[in-house]
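Hey all, sorry for the wall of text incoming. These are the two entities for the joint prediction.
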Amino acid sequence: MNVMTWIVGAVIGGMVAGMGVTYWLMRCRDSCGDREPQVNPVEQQWAEHERLWRDFCDAVSPLLPVLIAQLKVVVEETGRAADGLIERFQTIAQRARAQVEETTQLFGAMTDAQGDGQPTVARLLDETRATMEMFVQEVIKTSQISMKAVAVMEQATDSTASISQMVEEVEFIADQTRLLALNAAIEAARAGEHGRGFAVVADEVTKLANRSGHAVTRIRELTEGVRSSTEAAMRELGVLASVDMTPTLQAQQRVNGFTEIMARKTVMLEENVNKGSERANELADDIAQIVMSMQFQDITRQKIEHVYEPLEKIQFCLERFRSDQNTSHPPDTSLKEAMAFLHELEARYTMESERMVMGQVKQGRQDNVELFATAAAGNGDNITLF
Amino acid sequence: MGKTVLIVDDSVSMRQMVAFTLQGAGFEVIEAGDGKEAVSKLNGGAKPNLVITDLNMPNMDGIALIKAIRGMAAHKFTPILMLTTESAEAKKKEGQAAGATGWIVKPFNPDQMLQVIKKVLP
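and here's what came out:
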Protein backbone atom coordinates (compact mmCIF):
# COMPACT_ATOMS: atom_id res chain seq x y z
CA MET A 1 0.00 0.00 0.00
CA ASN A 2 2.82 2.40 0.87
CA VAL A 3 4.53 1.79 -2.48
CA MET A 4 1.32 2.66 -4.27
CA THR A 5 0.99 5.77 -2.10
CA TRP A 6 4.50 6.98 -3.03
CA ILE A 7 4.10 6.20 -6.71
CA VAL A 8 0.87 8.14 -6.81
CA GLY A 9 2.55 10.92 -4.79
CA ALA A 10 5.36 11.09 -7.32
CA VAL A 11 2.84 11.21 -10.17
CA ILE A 12 0.99 14.02 -8.41
CA GLY A 13 4.25 15.94 -7.89
CA GLY A 14 5.21 15.48 -11.53
CA MET A 15 1.82 16.56 -12.70
CA VAL A 16 1.70 19.65 -10.52
CA ALA A 17 5.20 20.65 -11.64
CA GLY A 18 4.30 19.91 -15.28
CA MET A 19 1.12 21.94 -15.04
CA GLY A 20 3.10 24.88 -13.61
CA VAL A 21 5.61 24.75 -16.47
CA THR A 22 2.86 24.46 -19.06
CA TYR A 23 0.86 27.28 -17.55
CA TRP A 24 3.99 29.44 -17.64
CA LEU A 25 4.67 28.37 -21.24
CA MET A 26 1.11 29.17 -22.30
CA ARG A 27 1.25 32.60 -20.68
CA CYS A 28 4.52 33.31 -22.38
CA ARG A 29 3.02 32.25 -25.69
CA ASP A 30 -0.06 34.43 -25.13
CA SER A 31 2.10 37.44 -24.27
CA CYS A 32 4.09 36.90 -27.45
CA GLY A 33 0.95 36.35 -29.52
CA ASP A 34 0.66 39.97 -30.68
CA ARG A 35 4.11 40.07 -32.27
CA GLU A 36 4.94 39.18 -35.80
CA PRO A 37 5.37 35.45 -36.21
CA GLN A 38 9.06 34.62 -36.32
CA VAL A 39 10.75 31.30 -36.64
CA ASN A 40 12.57 31.26 -33.40
CA PRO A 41 14.40 28.19 -32.01
CA VAL A 42 13.16 29.01 -28.49
CA GLU A 43 9.57 29.21 -29.68
CA GLN A 44 10.05 25.97 -31.54
CA GLN A 45 11.14 24.35 -28.28
CA TRP A 46 8.13 25.82 -26.52
CA ALA A 47 5.85 24.51 -29.20
CA GLU A 48 7.42 21.11 -28.87
CA HIS A 49 7.03 21.19 -25.06
CA GLU A 50 3.42 22.26 -25.41
CA ARG A 51 2.71 19.48 -27.88
CA LEU A 52 4.26 16.96 -25.56
CA TRP A 53 2.30 18.31 -22.62
CA ARG A 54 -0.96 18.06 -24.55
CA ASP A 55 -0.12 14.46 -25.43
CA PHE A 56 0.64 13.75 -21.80
CA CYS A 57 -2.66 15.31 -20.70
CA ASP A 58 -4.54 13.36 -23.35
CA ALA A 59 -2.94 10.15 -22.08
CA VAL A 60 -3.31 10.84 -18.36
CA SER A 61 -6.74 12.43 -18.35
CA PRO A 62 -8.71 9.26 -19.11
CA LEU A 63 -6.35 7.27 -16.88
CA LEU A 64 -7.01 9.23 -13.70
CA PRO A 65 -10.67 8.25 -13.28
CA VAL A 66 -9.61 4.63 -13.65
CA LEU A 67 -6.94 4.96 -10.96
CA ILE A 68 -9.35 6.78 -8.66
CA ALA A 69 -12.07 4.19 -9.20
CA GLN A 70 -9.60 1.39 -8.52
CA LEU A 71 -8.46 3.02 -5.28
CA LYS A 72 -12.08 3.46 -4.21
CA VAL A 73 -12.76 -0.18 -4.98
CA VAL A 74 -9.75 -1.13 -2.82
CA VAL A 75 -11.14 0.97 0.04
CA GLU A 76 -14.58 -0.54 -0.39
CA GLU A 77 -13.39 -4.13 -0.63
CA THR A 78 -10.91 -3.96 2.25
CA GLY A 79 -13.59 -2.24 4.32
CA ARG A 80 -16.09 -5.02 3.65
CA ALA A 81 -13.45 -7.69 4.25
CA ALA A 82 -12.35 -6.06 7.52
CA ASP A 83 -15.94 -5.74 8.74
CA GLY A 84 -16.56 -9.41 7.99
CA LEU A 85 -13.31 -10.50 9.64
CA ILE A 86 -13.95 -8.45 12.75
CA GLU A 87 -17.45 -9.86 13.07
CA ARG A 88 -16.23 -13.44 12.68
CA PHE A 89 -13.30 -12.98 15.04
CA GLN A 90 -15.60 -11.43 17.60
CA THR A 91 -17.88 -14.45 17.33
CA ILE A 92 -14.91 -16.81 17.79
CA ALA A 93 -13.68 -14.85 20.81
CA GLN A 94 -17.15 -14.91 22.35
CA ARG A 95 -17.44 -18.66 21.73
CA ALA A 96 -14.02 -19.29 23.29
CA ARG A 97 -15.01 -17.34 26.40
CA ALA A 98 -18.39 -19.11 26.54
CA GLN A 99 -16.58 -22.46 26.35
CA VAL A 100 -14.36 -21.47 29.29
CA GLU A 101 -17.46 -20.46 31.23
CA GLU A 102 -19.31 -23.71 30.49
CA THR A 103 -16.31 -25.93 31.27
CA THR A 104 -15.65 -24.09 34.51
CA GLN A 105 -19.28 -24.45 35.54
CA LEU A 106 -19.42 -28.13 34.57
CA PHE A 107 -16.21 -29.04 36.36
CA GLY A 108 -17.10 -26.76 39.25
CA ALA A 109 -20.24 -28.83 39.74
CA MET A 110 -18.07 -31.95 39.97
CA THR A 111 -15.31 -30.60 42.16
CA ASP A 112 -16.61 -27.65 44.13
CA ALA A 113 -19.49 -27.33 46.49
CA GLN A 114 -21.53 -24.67 44.70
CA GLY A 115 -23.96 -24.18 47.52
CA ASP A 116 -26.57 -26.33 45.83
CA GLY A 117 -26.25 -29.21 48.29
CA GLN A 118 -25.03 -31.60 45.60
CA PRO A 119 -22.17 -33.93 46.63
CA THR A 120 -18.88 -33.42 44.84
CA VAL A 121 -16.74 -36.21 43.37
CA ALA A 122 -14.20 -35.91 46.20
CA ARG A 123 -16.97 -36.12 48.79
CA LEU A 124 -18.54 -39.13 47.06
CA LEU A 125 -15.20 -40.93 47.05
CA ASP A 126 -14.63 -40.13 50.75
CA GLU A 127 -18.11 -41.39 51.58
CA THR A 128 -17.56 -44.59 49.57
CA ARG A 129 -14.34 -45.28 51.49
CA ALA A 130 -16.04 -44.53 54.83
CA THR A 131 -19.04 -46.74 53.98
CA MET A 132 -16.77 -49.62 53.02
CA GLU A 133 -14.78 -49.24 56.24
CA MET A 134 -17.98 -49.23 58.29
CA PHE A 135 -19.21 -52.35 56.49
CA VAL A 136 -15.96 -54.24 57.19
CA GLN A 137 -16.02 -53.21 60.85
CA GLU A 138 -19.59 -54.45 61.15
CA VAL A 139 -18.65 -57.80 59.63
CA ILE A 140 -15.72 -58.15 62.06
CA LYS A 141 -17.94 -57.21 64.98
CA THR A 142 -20.58 -59.76 63.94
CA SER A 143 -17.94 -62.45 63.76
CA GLN A 144 -16.64 -61.58 67.22
CA ILE A 145 -20.16 -61.65 68.69
CA SER A 146 -20.80 -65.01 67.07
CA MET A 147 -17.65 -66.45 68.64
CA LYS A 148 -18.77 -65.20 72.06
CA ALA A 149 -22.23 -66.63 71.48
CA VAL A 150 -20.71 -70.03 70.60
CA ALA A 151 -18.78 -69.97 73.89
CA VAL A 152 -21.99 -69.16 75.80
CA MET A 153 -23.79 -71.97 73.99
CA GLU A 154 -21.09 -74.42 74.93
CA GLN A 155 -21.61 -73.48 78.57
CA ALA A 156 -25.36 -73.98 78.12
CA THR A 157 -24.74 -77.45 76.62
CA ASP A 158 -22.57 -78.35 79.61
CA SER A 159 -25.36 -77.16 81.91
CA THR A 160 -27.97 -79.33 80.17
CA ALA A 161 -25.66 -82.34 80.62
CA SER A 162 -25.50 -81.61 84.36
CA ILE A 163 -29.27 -81.23 84.46
CA SER A 164 -29.63 -84.66 82.80
CA GLN A 165 -27.41 -86.22 85.46
CA MET A 166 -29.49 -84.62 88.23
CA VAL A 167 -32.71 -85.79 86.53
CA GLU A 168 -31.42 -89.36 86.61
CA GLU A 169 -30.73 -88.93 90.33
CA VAL A 170 -34.28 -87.61 90.92
CA GLU A 171 -35.68 -90.57 88.87
CA PHE A 172 -33.73 -92.96 91.05
CA ILE A 173 -35.11 -91.29 94.18
CA ALA A 174 -38.67 -91.52 92.79
CA ASP A 175 -38.21 -95.23 91.97
CA GLN A 176 -36.84 -95.92 95.46
CA THR A 177 -39.66 -93.94 97.06
CA ARG A 178 -42.25 -95.91 95.05
CA LEU A 179 -40.55 -99.17 96.23
CA LEU A 180 -40.47 -97.91 99.78
CA ALA A 181 -44.19 -96.99 99.61
CA LEU A 182 -44.95 -100.46 98.24
CA ASN A 183 -43.11 -102.07 101.18
CA ALA A 184 -44.95 -99.78 103.56
CA ALA A 185 -48.31 -100.80 102.01
CA ILE A 186 -47.36 -104.48 102.46
CA GLU A 187 -46.42 -103.88 106.07
CA ALA A 188 -49.65 -101.92 106.67
CA ALA A 189 -51.73 -104.81 105.27
CA ARG A 190 -49.92 -107.23 107.51
CA ALA A 191 -50.73 -105.04 110.56
CA GLY A 192 -54.46 -105.35 109.76
CA GLU A 193 -56.85 -102.93 111.30
CA HIS A 194 -53.96 -101.14 113.09
CA GLY A 195 -52.15 -100.52 109.88
CA ARG A 196 -55.13 -98.99 107.98
CA GLY A 197 -53.99 -95.42 108.49
CA PHE A 198 -50.44 -96.25 107.52
CA ALA A 199 -51.77 -97.88 104.33
CA VAL A 200 -53.38 -94.53 103.36
CA VAL A 201 -50.01 -92.78 103.90
CA ALA A 202 -48.19 -95.39 101.84
CA ASP A 203 -50.74 -94.93 99.04
CA GLU A 204 -50.16 -91.15 99.02
CA VAL A 205 -46.39 -91.61 98.99
CA THR A 206 -46.82 -93.92 95.97
CA LYS A 207 -48.84 -91.22 94.19
CA LEU A 208 -46.14 -88.61 94.97
CA ALA A 209 -43.43 -90.97 93.70
CA ASN A 210 -45.41 -91.46 90.46
CA ARG A 211 -45.83 -87.69 90.00
CA SER A 212 -42.10 -87.26 90.61
CA GLY A 213 -41.51 -89.87 87.92
CA HIS A 214 -43.76 -88.03 85.45
CA ALA A 215 -42.02 -84.71 86.25
CA VAL A 216 -38.64 -86.31 85.68
CA THR A 217 -39.77 -87.66 82.31
CA ARG A 218 -40.99 -84.18 81.33
CA ILE A 219 -37.77 -82.53 82.52
CA ARG A 220 -35.72 -85.02 80.51
CA GLU A 221 -37.74 -84.27 77.38
CA LEU A 222 -37.34 -80.51 77.88
CA THR A 223 -33.63 -80.83 78.63
CA GLU A 224 -33.22 -82.91 75.51
CA GLY A 225 -35.04 -80.24 73.51
CA VAL A 226 -32.82 -77.48 74.94
CA ARG A 227 -29.69 -79.51 74.21
CA SER A 228 -30.82 -80.22 70.66
CA SER A 229 -31.70 -76.53 69.99
CA THR A 230 -28.47 -75.31 71.54
CA GLU A 231 -26.43 -77.67 69.42
CA ALA A 232 -28.26 -76.51 66.26
CA ALA A 233 -27.68 -72.84 67.20
CA MET A 234 -24.05 -73.61 67.94
CA ARG A 235 -23.62 -75.14 64.51
CA GLU A 236 -25.10 -72.00 62.86
CA LEU A 237 -23.13 -69.59 65.00
CA GLY A 238 -20.04 -71.68 64.44
CA VAL A 239 -20.43 -71.20 60.69
CA LEU A 240 -20.84 -67.42 61.24
CA ALA A 241 -17.90 -67.23 63.62
CA SER A 242 -15.62 -69.18 61.34
CA VAL A 243 -16.36 -66.99 58.24
CA ASP A 244 -13.08 -66.11 56.51
CA MET A 245 -12.50 -62.33 56.68
CA THR A 246 -9.96 -62.37 53.83
CA PRO A 247 -12.43 -61.79 50.95
CA THR A 248 -14.06 -58.92 52.88
CA LEU A 249 -10.69 -57.28 53.54
CA GLN A 250 -9.65 -57.82 49.93
CA ALA A 251 -12.90 -56.23 48.77
CA GLN A 252 -12.15 -53.27 51.03
CA GLN A 253 -8.66 -52.95 49.55
CA ARG A 254 -10.05 -53.09 46.03
CA VAL A 255 -12.67 -50.42 46.78
CA ASN A 256 -9.98 -48.25 48.38
CA GLY A 257 -7.81 -48.77 45.29
CA PHE A 258 -10.67 -47.73 43.01
CA THR A 259 -11.40 -44.62 45.02
CA GLU A 260 -7.71 -43.63 45.00
CA ILE A 261 -7.56 -44.06 41.21
CA MET A 262 -10.76 -42.07 40.86
CA ALA A 263 -9.33 -39.33 43.09
CA ARG A 264 -6.10 -39.19 41.06
CA LYS A 265 -8.03 -39.11 37.78
CA THR A 266 -10.25 -36.34 39.14
CA VAL A 267 -7.15 -34.29 40.01
CA MET A 268 -5.73 -34.92 36.51
CA LEU A 269 -9.07 -33.99 34.96
CA GLU A 270 -9.13 -30.80 37.02
CA GLU A 271 -5.59 -29.92 35.87
CA ASN A 272 -6.52 -30.60 32.22
CA VAL A 273 -9.72 -28.60 32.49
CA ASN A 274 -7.79 -25.69 34.03
CA LYS A 275 -5.17 -25.90 31.26
CA GLY A 276 -7.96 -26.07 28.66
CA SER A 277 -9.60 -23.01 30.19
CA GLU A 278 -6.29 -21.15 30.20
CA ARG A 279 -5.72 -22.01 26.54
CA ALA A 280 -9.25 -20.99 25.59
CA ASN A 281 -8.72 -17.70 27.43
CA GLU A 282 -5.40 -17.19 25.65
CA LEU A 283 -7.15 -17.93 22.37
CA ALA A 284 -9.83 -15.36 23.15
CA ASP A 285 -7.09 -12.81 24.05
CA ASP A 286 -5.20 -13.56 20.82
CA ILE A 287 -8.37 -13.14 18.81
CA ALA A 288 -9.11 -9.87 20.61
CA GLN A 289 -5.58 -8.78 19.62
CA ILE A 290 -6.29 -9.75 16.00
CA VAL A 291 -9.51 -7.75 16.08
CA MET A 292 -7.53 -4.76 17.32
CA SER A 293 -4.97 -5.26 14.53
CA MET A 294 -7.81 -4.76 12.07
CA GLN A 295 -7.49 -1.03 12.80
CA PHE A 296 -5.05 -1.03 9.90
CA GLN A 297 -8.09 -0.97 7.62
CA ASP A 298 -9.29 2.38 8.96
CA ILE A 299 -5.77 3.82 8.76
CA THR A 300 -5.08 2.58 5.22
CA ARG A 301 -8.55 3.74 4.16
CA GLN A 302 -7.68 7.26 5.23
CA LYS A 303 -4.27 7.08 3.56
CA ILE A 304 -5.84 5.95 0.28
CA GLU A 305 -8.48 8.67 0.59
CA HIS A 306 -5.62 11.14 0.94
CA VAL A 307 -4.29 9.78 -2.36
CA TYR A 308 -7.44 9.72 -4.46
CA GLU A 309 -8.78 13.05 -3.22
CA PRO A 310 -5.82 14.98 -4.74
CA LEU A 311 -6.04 12.70 -7.79
CA GLU A 312 -9.63 13.87 -8.26
CA LYS A 313 -8.46 17.50 -8.04
CA ILE A 314 -5.68 16.79 -10.55
CA GLN A 315 -8.19 15.20 -12.87
CA PHE A 316 -10.45 18.22 -12.50
CA CYS A 317 -7.53 20.60 -13.24
CA LEU A 318 -6.42 18.59 -16.26
CA GLU A 319 -9.93 18.52 -17.68
CA ARG A 320 -10.21 22.28 -17.21
CA PHE A 321 -6.83 22.91 -18.81
CA ARG A 322 -7.76 20.76 -21.78
CA SER A 323 -11.15 22.38 -22.25
CA ASP A 324 -9.83 25.92 -21.62
CA GLN A 325 -6.71 25.69 -23.75
CA ASN A 326 -8.35 27.21 -26.79
CA THR A 327 -10.22 29.90 -24.89
CA SER A 328 -8.91 33.23 -23.76
CA HIS A 329 -10.95 33.76 -20.58
CA PRO A 330 -9.04 33.59 -17.28
CA PRO A 331 -9.23 30.53 -14.97
CA ASP A 332 -12.35 30.54 -12.79
CA THR A 333 -12.61 30.10 -9.01
CA SER A 334 -13.16 26.34 -9.04
CA LEU A 335 -9.84 25.80 -10.80
CA LYS A 336 -8.10 28.06 -8.32
CA GLU A 337 -9.70 26.19 -5.45
CA ALA A 338 -8.56 22.87 -6.86
CA MET A 339 -5.02 24.20 -7.25
CA ALA A 340 -5.13 25.59 -3.70
CA PHE A 341 -6.22 22.15 -2.46
CA LEU A 342 -3.16 20.61 -4.09
CA HIS A 343 -0.81 23.28 -2.73
CA GLU A 344 -2.21 22.85 0.79
CA LEU A 345 -2.30 19.10 0.65
CA GLU A 346 0.12 18.70 3.56
CA ALA A 347 -2.20 20.66 5.83
CA ARG A 348 -4.98 18.18 5.05
CA TYR A 349 -2.95 15.18 6.12
CA THR A 350 -4.01 13.68 9.45
CA MET A 351 -1.14 11.29 10.08
CA GLU A 352 2.38 12.07 11.13
CA SER A 353 3.67 9.44 8.71
CA GLU A 354 2.02 11.27 5.78
CA ARG A 355 3.47 14.60 6.82
CA MET A 356 6.89 13.07 7.30
CA VAL A 357 6.87 11.54 3.82
CA MET A 358 5.77 14.85 2.31
CA GLY A 359 8.57 16.62 4.23
CA GLN A 360 11.16 14.14 3.03
CA VAL A 361 10.01 14.38 -0.61
CA LYS A 362 9.96 18.19 -0.46
CA GLN A 363 13.57 18.09 0.69
CA GLY A 364 14.35 15.93 -2.31
CA ARG A 365 14.99 12.82 -0.23
CA GLN A 366 12.84 10.29 -1.96
CA ASP A 367 14.99 7.26 -1.15
CA ASN A 368 13.93 5.11 1.79
CA VAL A 369 10.96 7.37 2.34
CA GLU A 370 8.96 4.34 3.45
CA LEU A 371 11.33 3.85 6.37
CA PHE A 372 10.58 7.36 7.60
CA ALA A 373 6.88 6.73 7.25
CA THR A 374 7.07 3.47 9.17
CA ALA A 375 9.13 5.07 11.93
CA ALA A 376 6.67 7.93 12.20
CA ALA A 377 3.67 5.60 12.29
CA GLY A 378 4.88 3.83 15.41
CA ASN A 379 6.36 6.86 17.07
CA GLY A 380 5.45 8.81 20.16
CA ASP A 381 2.93 8.82 22.94
CA ASN A 382 -0.51 8.26 21.49
CA ILE A 383 -2.55 9.36 24.50
CA THR A 384 -2.98 12.92 25.72
CA LEU A 385 -5.26 13.92 28.56
CA PHE A 386 -6.11 17.62 28.74
CA MET B 1 -26.14 -1.77 34.96
CA GLY B 2 -22.84 -0.73 33.35
CA LYS B 3 -21.97 2.76 32.24
CA THR B 4 -22.84 3.79 28.68
CA VAL B 5 -20.38 4.99 26.04
CA LEU B 6 -21.34 6.73 22.78
CA ILE B 7 -18.93 5.75 19.97
CA VAL B 8 -18.88 8.09 16.97
CA ASP B 9 -16.88 7.02 13.91
CA ASP B 10 -17.64 6.81 10.20
CA SER B 11 -15.73 3.54 10.00
CA VAL B 12 -17.96 0.56 10.85
CA SER B 13 -14.92 -1.58 11.69
CA MET B 14 -13.56 1.03 14.13
CA ARG B 15 -16.93 1.23 15.87
CA GLN B 16 -16.99 -2.56 16.07
CA MET B 17 -13.50 -2.71 17.55
CA VAL B 18 -14.14 -0.03 20.17
CA ALA B 19 -17.50 -1.63 21.02
CA PHE B 20 -15.81 -5.04 21.31
CA THR B 21 -13.25 -3.62 23.75
CA LEU B 22 -15.80 -1.74 25.85
CA GLN B 23 -18.46 -4.45 25.94
CA GLY B 24 -15.79 -6.90 27.09
CA ALA B 25 -15.16 -4.55 30.03
CA GLY B 26 -18.86 -4.35 30.92
CA PHE B 27 -19.86 -1.08 29.24
CA GLU B 28 -23.09 -0.47 27.33
CA VAL B 29 -22.43 0.95 23.88
CA ILE B 30 -24.33 3.34 21.59
CA GLU B 31 -22.98 3.88 18.05
CA ALA B 32 -23.22 6.78 15.63
CA GLY B 33 -21.75 7.05 12.10
CA ASP B 34 -20.94 10.77 12.27
CA GLY B 35 -21.36 13.91 14.41
CA LYS B 36 -24.82 14.64 13.09
CA GLU B 37 -26.15 11.22 13.99
CA ALA B 38 -24.52 11.49 17.43
CA VAL B 39 -26.20 14.86 18.11
CA SER B 40 -29.50 13.40 16.93
CA LYS B 41 -29.14 10.48 19.36
CA LEU B 42 -28.23 12.80 22.24
CA ASN B 43 -31.22 15.03 21.46
CA GLY B 44 -33.33 11.88 21.28
CA GLY B 45 -32.60 11.11 24.94
CA ALA B 46 -29.38 9.06 24.87
CA LYS B 47 -27.48 9.68 28.10
CA PRO B 48 -23.93 8.37 27.72
CA ASN B 49 -21.45 8.66 30.56
CA LEU B 50 -18.65 9.09 28.01
CA VAL B 51 -18.28 9.97 24.32
CA ILE B 52 -15.50 8.61 22.11
CA THR B 53 -15.38 10.32 18.73
CA ASP B 54 -13.32 10.30 15.56
CA LEU B 55 -12.12 13.64 14.17
CA ASN B 56 -12.60 13.41 10.41
CA MET B 57 -16.14 12.37 9.58
CA PRO B 58 -18.71 13.37 6.96
CA ASN B 59 -21.63 15.71 7.78
CA MET B 60 -20.21 16.84 11.13
CA ASP B 61 -16.61 16.34 12.25
CA GLY B 62 -15.35 15.60 15.74
CA ILE B 63 -14.52 19.20 16.71
CA ALA B 64 -17.97 20.44 15.67
CA LEU B 65 -19.53 17.53 17.58
CA ILE B 66 -17.61 18.42 20.76
CA LYS B 67 -18.78 22.03 20.47
CA ALA B 68 -22.37 20.84 19.97
CA ILE B 69 -22.18 18.52 22.98
CA ARG B 70 -20.70 21.22 25.21
CA GLY B 71 -23.65 23.38 24.22
CA MET B 72 -26.08 20.84 25.69
CA ALA B 73 -26.84 21.46 29.35
CA ALA B 74 -27.07 17.73 30.09
CA HIS B 75 -23.63 16.99 28.61
CA LYS B 76 -21.63 20.04 29.55
CA PHE B 77 -19.35 17.92 31.72
CA THR B 78 -19.58 14.54 29.97
CA PRO B 79 -16.02 13.34 29.24
CA ILE B 80 -15.21 13.30 25.51
CA LEU B 81 -12.23 11.40 24.10
CA MET B 82 -11.02 11.93 20.54
CA LEU B 83 -9.95 8.73 18.81
CA THR B 84 -8.28 9.68 15.54
CA THR B 85 -5.33 9.14 13.24
CA GLU B 86 -4.61 12.87 13.61
CA SER B 87 -1.61 13.54 15.80
CA ALA B 88 -0.80 17.18 15.02
CA GLU B 89 -0.40 19.34 18.12
CA ALA B 90 -2.40 22.16 16.52
CA LYS B 91 -5.38 19.84 16.05
CA LYS B 92 -5.06 18.58 19.60
CA LYS B 93 -5.13 22.18 20.85
CA GLU B 94 -8.18 22.82 18.70
CA GLY B 95 -9.85 19.79 20.27
CA GLN B 96 -8.88 20.90 23.76
CA ALA B 97 -10.27 24.38 23.10
CA ALA B 98 -13.53 22.84 21.85
CA GLY B 99 -13.85 20.93 25.12
CA ALA B 100 -12.29 17.49 24.54
CA THR B 101 -11.16 15.65 27.66
CA GLY B 102 -8.42 13.61 25.99
CA TRP B 103 -6.88 12.59 22.69
CA ILE B 104 -6.03 9.04 21.61
CA VAL B 105 -4.13 8.50 18.36
CA LYS B 106 -5.08 5.41 16.32
CA PRO B 107 -4.25 2.59 16.42
CA PHE B 108 -5.40 2.29 20.00
CA ASN B 109 -4.34 -0.30 22.54
CA PRO B 110 -7.43 -1.78 24.28
CA ASP B 111 -5.83 -1.90 27.75
CA GLN B 112 -4.57 1.66 27.45
CA MET B 113 -7.98 2.83 26.28
CA LEU B 114 -9.72 1.17 29.24
CA GLN B 115 -7.23 2.77 31.64
CA VAL B 116 -7.87 6.20 30.12
CA ILE B 117 -11.63 5.66 30.32
CA LYS B 118 -11.29 4.67 33.98
CA LYS B 119 -9.40 7.90 34.62
CA VAL B 120 -11.84 10.24 32.91
CA LEU B 121 -15.14 8.64 33.95
CA PRO B 122 -16.81 10.44 36.85
